[in-house]
Amino acid sequence: MQRITAIEIQRNRPDRVNIHLDGEFAFGLGRPLAERLKVGQDLSEARISSLQQADADQRAYEQALLYLSFRPRSEAEIRKNLEKHQHAGTAIERILARLRSEGYADDASFARAWVDNRATFRPRGRQALSAELRLKGLDDNQVREAVTNVDEAALAEAAARNRSRRLTGLEWPEFRQKLTAYLRRRGFPFDIISRVVRDTWNELHSSSIDSAEKDES
User: Fold this and answer.
1) Strand order through the sheet with 24-30
2) pLDDT (tens digit, 9 = 90+) per residue, 129-140?
3) pLDDT at 211 (0 to 100)
4) How far, in Å, CA of 171 to CA of 173, rounded?
5) 181 with 208, same domain?
6) Do 59 and 74 share a domain, yes or no?
7) H/E run at residue 100
8) Whole-number Å distance between alpha carbons of 58 and 30
9) Into how many domains does the chain fold?
10) Residue 89 maps to which CATH number?
11) CA-to-CA distance for 81 and 61, rounded, in angstroms?
């Protein structure tokens, strides 16, 4: 047994306290965990270990919530962030389990949200979306499920329509080359690209593709 000889609020962290045992600093705790402790109280080794683990878990949990406050994250991203902040592996796994139970960590929901966000703001084809999700740490089954119902044709049309605003004034050959390259970089398949590029040109010009190609020859 060790006896608590002082409980002091930390100078730079008023939400935490320093616990002194037998006249010496022993460890820090978040104030909620320290509320039931008092000077003169005896602590067993098991109790000390339990308090330190609870404190480590709480700090990891708060860091994870802070990280999640900016945007949804995959489990792999959360784990990497907690490792970056030097939280122990055992604490990280406990926190991930807690986040899953509370609905904060859900790779399937994350993948759907990522695909929906891309469709709204930065359309991508299945190939590009799959690559992005794998970089976020999702496995092949999760990626496949997330991109299965992606309407590549509609997304390619939206991407082409948005990009074409920058290509007005170009002749057909250069327009085709630039828009094709743009759509390929975004992971759309060639058969869709070919049709969408032609349709986008026709939307912007009264003359048909056939006329443009005839003038080119």
Assistant:
1) 24-30, 16-21, 2-9, 42-43
2) 999 999 999 999
3) 54
4) 6
5) yes
6) yes
7) helix 89-101
8) 8
9) 4
10) 1.10.10.10
11) 12
Residue 9: both structure tokens together: 């609020």
Q: Are the C-beta atoms of 134 and 146 separated by less than 8 Å?
A: no
Amino acid 214: pLDDT: 53
Taking 70 as the pLDDT cut, the residues of the chain under it are: 206-217
What are the tokens at 205? 């010009």
CA terminus-to-terminus distance, the chain: 93
Within this chain, do residues 37 and 50 fall inside the same structural domain, yes or no? no
Residue 135 CA: distances (Å) to CA of 63, 158, 172:
22, 25, 36
Q: Are strands 2-9 and 24-30 parallel, antiparallel or unpaired?
A: unpaired
203 alpha-carbon distance from chain centroid: 37
Q: How far is CA 157 from CA 8, 125, 140, 175, 203, in A?
A: 63, 11, 27, 15, 11
The residue whose two tokens read 């082409």 is 160
Confidence (pLDDT) at 51 = 95
**Prediction pTM value:** 0.79
- State which residues form the domain around 141: 107-150
16-38 residues labelled b (16+ CB within 10 A) or e (exposed): bbbbbbeeeebebbbeebbeeee
The alpha carbon dihedral of 80, 143, 97, 93 has a sign of: negative
Identify whether residues 140 and 171 lie together within a single domain.
Answer: no
Distance in angstroms (rounded) separating the CA atoms of residues 28 and 211: 78
Question: Which residues, in sequence order, are bridge partners of residue 4?
Answer: 21
Q: Both 57 and 16 in a single domain?
A: no
pLDDT in tens, 26-76: 999 999 999 989 999 999 999 999 999 999 999 999 999 999 999 999 999
